[in-house]
Amino acid sequence: MMASPDKSLEAVLDDAVYMPPPTPAIADDPVEAAIPAASLPAAAVAAASPLPDRAPAAASSSSSDSGSESSTSSSPLRPGDLGGDADAGGACLSSSSDDDEERDLVARLRQQLSIGDEAGVQLAKEALLPSFDLAGVAQLIQSGKAKRIICMCGAGISVSAGIPDFRSPGTGLYSQLQKYNLPYPHAVFELSYFEKKPKPFFRLARELFPGNYLPTPTHYFMKLLHDKGLLLRCFTQNIDSLEKQAGLPAEAIVAAHGNFDSAKCIRCARPHPVEHVRQAVFAGDGGNACYCVKKSCGGLVKPEIVFFGESLPPRFWERAPLDYSEADLLIVMGTSLAVHPFAGLIDYVQPHVPRLLVNREKAGEAVFGGGLLGQQKGFTFGAGNYRDALYLGDCDDGVRQLCELLGWQQELDALVAAGRQQLEAAAQQAEAKS
Ligand code: CNA
């Protein structure tokens, strides 16, 4: 069964690709998954593997904007592994009240039965936090027990900088993509569509290209953790490079979905200066495609942003197994946890590691796939919770409150002020030069 996070992730390196928000999946038989391996026949153990190599069974229904999303997945960390009912439109993971009742029942049963999980840790666990909120996490950090913190971030942390996220109704990019005349929202990040119609992507790139935005207090909070020697790594899905702009060194960041820092031709793989792309997309009224400088090639040049169906960068796969096995606190901020395999990483910290979600809505919640003793993956904020803290609200408010509780408020404010001053001065200098 689940020997270690390292092993689980290594086992799937070969076919790991960036997946669009998942189609609901039918979970593996969770009863088998919950029984210690030693008590199962070999065939049952294989069936209960936490990272099955087969594609998830797609539910019969599909959402209106599913586009290519309904294709089967080679992602190791599938929606069924995480639980939840993320729809093909990738809205939030949610649960019905029936789900809540079942979850409560199962949690009580598991506690009474003291069923062990794969790591041999008793599921009738003692709470790992004094309270499942910011105060509980602040106490943990103050106690000195959290010194290797992983931050996992999504588009929500950059919303206050002025960059829309994907899925927030009304304001998210997916609500605005009609103006690009796309058959479905994800087409803009699909290689096959890009090859045929590159302009929508380049138009969007013009809006997202770094340089127009300043990091948010949430970005500076991660810098503060780093400066205090408490940040093990920042795993970000964001392509805006604001973590770097806030002063986090490259070594501290894993840009899981790439960014605009580099670009290459999709036909001959020749690297191109980012400036080459910038000049193309900012020429005219925007949306100009960018082509390979080698005339005989003529391929499209794409910033190294990971498109749906593409592999995540090697650095993601190198760092994730090592870092997640070492972390002693996970802070997840501003993400719907709808995109795999990134989303499934929340389950790769050790079972004794507390986790905090800071988001406008609940995300990545565990469901049980209908089985009584189901293997639980994802966050548990209700009954059965022993380690998951939740702050519902804006990331900037959440990190400010956490800093206040830790007595770090002034340091955070100073970092924000100094960082922004520096960036504004640099921008003015660049403008004066041009
Ligand atoms: P998403 O699916 O759009 O989810 C964003 C989540 O953040 C939602 O749950 C929101 O409720 C929540 N949220 C929005 N604003 C705030 C706020 N101020 N404070 C707290 N929570 C907030 O985006 P994900 O990151 O989960 O999806 C992954 C995609 C989005 C990645 O591939 C990214 O590359 C892509 N993306 C990145 C950017 C960027 O780089 N800034 C922008 C848009 C999309």
What is the gist of this entry?
The protein has 434 residues and is an alpha/beta fold. The chain is 32% helix and 10% strand.
Question: Can you offer a commentary on this structure?
Answer:
The protein has 434 residues and is an alpha/beta fold. Helices cover 32% and strands 10% of the residues. It has 15 helices and nine strands. The strands form two sheets. Strands 3-2-1-7-8-9 form a six-stranded parallel β-sheet, with helices on both faces. The longest helix has 25 residues. It starts with a helix and ends with a helix. The site of carba-nicotinamide-adenine-dinucleotide has 31 residues, from loops. This is Deacetylase sirtuin-type domain-containing protein. GO terms for molecular function: histone deacetylase activity, NAD-dependent; metal ion binding; NAD+ binding. It holds the Pfam family SIR2. Its cofactor is Zn(2+). InterPro entries: DHS-like_NAD/FAD-binding_dom, NAD-dep_sirtuin_deacylases, Sirtuin, Sirtuin_cat_small_dom_sf, Ssirtuin_cat_dom.
